[in-house]
Specification:
The chain is of the alpha+beta class and 176 residues long. The protein folds into 2 domains: 30 residues; 127 residues, no CATH class. It is 36% helix and 16% strand. It has 4 helices and 4 strands, in the order αβββααβα. Strands 1-4-2-3 form a 4-stranded mixed beta sheet. The longest helix is centred in the first third of the chain and has 26 residues.
Length: 176
Amino acid sequence: MQISNSCMAILERLIKSHNQRILNKSNSIKNQCNCAGGCKYNLKGGNCRSENIIYKATVNSDLEKKFYIGLCSTQFRFRYANHKKSFKGGVYENETELSKYVCGLKRKNIDFKLTWEVIKRAQPIADGNNPVCRLCLKESTAVMNALKKEGCLNKKNEFISSCRRIKKLLLKHNKF
């Protein structure tokens, strides 16, 4: 069988899309929550094993209602654990704008309630051939749109940073 060079790009695209469909099916099985007694993370629109999501954390206090937009390329339960660690104050208090705000409320002894929800899903950067991380792009657009609204905790400089997931694709970080 002979294949011309003009057909190779089309064939490559077909193979990649087929492989992605198979991977997405296995990811949906892997992403099912198995917390005892129901999911304890209260993530609307997802569960604790959701990956590659843009989330919104809403802080309801007696004084006001504020929200924060973030991304999570790993399972949400790991990102949630990092947030909980930073809410305790100390060294990790300045990790995010959300943690600064929550720690400020705790210092003032103001009661608050945190709710979490998935607002978007996207695939992170997968290979060096396509240097665009859809996850970072969607988070940046969500933050830009949120900055127009009152009560947003995110700052303008957050959507200028580079993708952290690209480092693991570079050869100097891989061990052969």
